[in-house]
Specification:
Number of helices: 15
Distance between the termini: 54 Å
CATH class of the domain at 247-417: Alpha Beta
Order of helices and strands: HEHEEHHEHHEEHEHEEEEHHHHEHEEHH
Largest sheet: 3 strands, mixed
Helix content: 25-40%
CATH topology of the domain at 247-417: CBS-domain
Biased composition (Basic and acidic residues): 446-460
GO cellular component, one term: nucleus
Biased composition (Low complexity): 427-445
Number of strands: 14
Structural class: alpha/beta
Radius of gyration: 23 Å
Strand order of the largest sheet: 1-2-3
CATH architecture of the domain at 247-417: Roll
Shape: flat
Domain CBS: 241-298, 366-425
InterPro entries: AMPK_gamma/SDS23_families, CBS_dom, CBS_dom_sf
CATH superfamily of the domain at 247-417: CBS-domain
C-alpha cells in the first residue's frame, strides 16, 4: 500500500521521473561481456577479478559466421579471440545472440540443482559436505554457461533508439519492474518478474551501458528535494519496520543458507545470534569473489565466508564463512552458543564478558560493518545509507538489535511507483507450491515447443 503523501509530493516525483530521459543517467562504461561457451570456472574468475555480480552473455559467432546481408566476414562481426570474454566493441548478427545476464546467484543455484539426489545436505557432517561439494564442484566448474540449469533472468535489454525516447519512469516500470526483453535465452526457471539491471545495445548489438536499480536509487537521492513529505516518512510509517525477516544462526552451513534463499526466492538472510540479535548479513554480494575452486567453502558456517581454497568450504557454517571473506575470525559464537553451553549457569557471564571486553559494532563478529536503522529512520536517511555505503539493503532493528524489517533497492523503487503509477506494479511472485508447479509446467511446455520448432527448422 502506498504511503499517504500530499498530491503535491506525488506530482513532483512523477514530474521528475517523467521529464528525465534515461540517457541523462548514462555514462561511458567498460561493460564486461561473457561468451556462452565460457565455463563456470572462467566466468567466476572474470566476475571476481572485476568484483562484479553479473555480466551480459552473448552467443559468440562461429568462425564462418557472417553479418546479416553481407557475403563476407566483416571485421565488426569477426569471431572473438579464445577465452571467456566477448569484446565490447565487437558487434553481433542480431539480438538473438544476446542471451541474457549471468549472475553469481545463477551459478550457485545451478550448482544446487546439480547436488539434487546426492543426499540430505542439512543432515551431513561438515567433512562429508565438504567432500561432496569438492567432488561435484570440480566437474561443475567445466560446465559452459549455456548449459547451466538456471541462467539469464535477472536483466532486461533495451535498444539505444528506444533508450533515447525512454524516461526514467519508463525504464523503472517497463524495464526493472516489468522486463520485456530478458534476452534470447529468456531465463531458465525464473520466478520473479522484477530485475535489477537493464542493458543498452546499439544497431550492431553491442552492449554499451547498463543501468541498475542502484543507479535509480542514486538518482532519486540526488533529487531528494523533489520528495516532498515522503522524505520525512519513517520506516515504521512506510511499513518497513514490521515485515518478516528470514534469519538463520551462524552455525548453519553456507550451502544450506543458499538453499534457503532459493526456497524463499530472496537475495539475503539476516544472521542472528542465540537471542535473535543481528550479527551479520549473508547475501549474494558475499559471493562476488567466489571461484570454482572455492565451492567447498559453502560447507562453512555462514559466519566464515569464501576465501577458502576448495568448493567444499561451502559446507562451513555461515558465521565462519562470512569471517573468511572479510579477513577475520568468527568471534565468540562457535562454542558459547552450543546447546549445552547455552543451558549452563556460566553462559550469561561468558556472553556479558565478551560484550564488556571491547566496544561492539554491528557485524564485527563476522568481519562486517552492518548498516542498520531504527523504525524511526526517515526515508531520506535510509536512501543516504544505501547510496553512501553502496549497499543493496538496510535492516530495521528494534532496541535489542533484533531485525524487524529490511529495506532493499527494489522496495524503494516499488514504493516510488506505488505513488505515481500504482497500476504498473507487477503481481507478487508465486507464493504457493501449486503456483510454482504451474509455472514450472508452463516452462516445460514452452521448452518442448521451442525444441519442436528447432527440429522443424532443421528439416526444412
Amino acid at each position: 500500500m502506498a504511503p499517504a503523501c500530499t498530491p503535491e509530493t506525488i506530482e513532483r516525483i512523477a514530474t521528475l521521473l517523467k521529464d528525465t530521459n534515461l540517457h541523462d543517467l548514462l555514462s561511458p562504461q567498460n561493460v564486461i561481456i561473457l561468451k556462452d561457451s565460457a565455463t563456470v570456472e572462467q566466468s567466476l574468475k572474470t566476475l571476481a577479478s572485476k568484483r562484479i555480480l553479473s555480466s551480459p552473455v552473448v552467443a559468440a559467432p562461429d568462425a564462418d559466421a557472417k553479418p546479416p546481408g553481407c557475403g563476407c566476414l566483416a571485421p565488426l562481426f569477426a569471431p572473438a579471440p579464445p577465452g571467456a570474454h566477448w569484446p565490447q566493441e565487437k558487434g553481433l548478427a542480431g539480438n538473438h545472440q544476446i542471451l541474457g545476464f549471468l549472475d553469481v546467484r545463477d551459478v550457485l543455484s545451478s550448482f544446487l540443482a546439480e547436488l539434487e539426489g546426492h543426499g540430505n545436505l542439512p543432515k551431513m557432517k561438515m567433512l562429508q559436505k565438504m567432500r561432496l561439494l569438492e567432488e561435484q564442484g570440480s566437474s561443475f566448474a567445466t560446465t559452459a554457461i549455456k548449459d547451466l540449469k538456471v541462467f539469464g533472468g535477472d536483466g532486461d535489454f533495451l535498444h539505444t533508439s528506444e533508450a533515447a525516447q525512454t524516461s526514467v519512469l519508463d525504464v523503472i516500470v517497463n524495464g526493472l519492474l516489468n522486463p520485456k526483453e530478458r534476452g534470447a535465452h529468456q531465463g531458465k526457471h525464473i520466478v520473479t518478474g522484477t530485475v535489477h539491471r537493464v542493458a543498452i545495445y546499439d544497431n550492431h548489438f553491442r552492449i554499451n551501458n547498463i543501468i541498475s536499480q542502484t543507479d535509480i536509487i542514486k538518482f532519486i537521492f540526488m533529487n531528494k528535494g523533489e520528495l516532498g513529505d515522503l522524505a520525512t516518512k519513517t520506516a515504521a510509517e512506510l511499513g518497513w519496520a514490521s515485515r518478516p525477516v528470514v534469519t538463520l544462526g551462524p552455525d548453519v552451513s553456507a550451502i544450506e543458507a543458499m538453499l534457503l534463499m532459493n526456497q524463499k526466492q530472496i537475495s539475503a538472510l539476516a544472521v542472528v545470534d542465540g537471542v535473535g540479535k543481528i550479527i551479520g548479513n549473508f547475501s549474494v554480494s558475499e559471493m562476488r569473489t567466489i571461484m570454482a575452486e572455492h565451492f567447498g567453502a559453502l560447507a562453512l558456517p555462514v559466519g566464515e565466508t569464501i576465501m577458502a581454497e576448495h568448493f567444499g568450504a561451502l559446507a562451513l557454517p555461515v558465521g565462519e564463512f562470512l569471517a573468511l571473506e572479510h579477513g577475520t575470525e568468527f568471534q565468540g559464537y562457535s562454542h558459547i552458543h552450543e546447546q549445552e553451553v547455552v543451558q549452563s549457569k556460566g553462559h550469561k557471564f561468558i556472553t556479558d564478558r565478551i560484550a564488556r571486553a571491547r566496544p561492539r559494532t554491528p557485524g564485527e563478529e563476522v568481519g562486517q560493518n552492518l548498516i542498520l536503522v531504527t523504525p524511526q529512520a526517515t526515508m531520506i536517511e535510509i536512501l543516504d545509507k544505501i547510496v553512501s555505503h553502496r549497499i543493496h539493503r538496510v535492516y530495521v532493528i528494534d532496541e535489542l538489535e533484533r531485525p524487524v524489517g529490511v529495506v532493499t533497492c527494489t522496495d524503494v523503487v516499488r514504493l516510488i511507483i506505488s505513488l505515481v503509477q500504482p497500476a504498473a506494479l507487477p503481481a507478487s511472485r508465486p507464493s504457493s507450491a501449486k503456483q510454482l508447479q504451474q509455472l514450472e509446467q508452463q516452462e516445460a511446455e514452452q521448452q518442448q515447443h521451442d525444441q519442436q520448432k528447432d527440429a522443424d527448422a532443421m528439416q526444412q
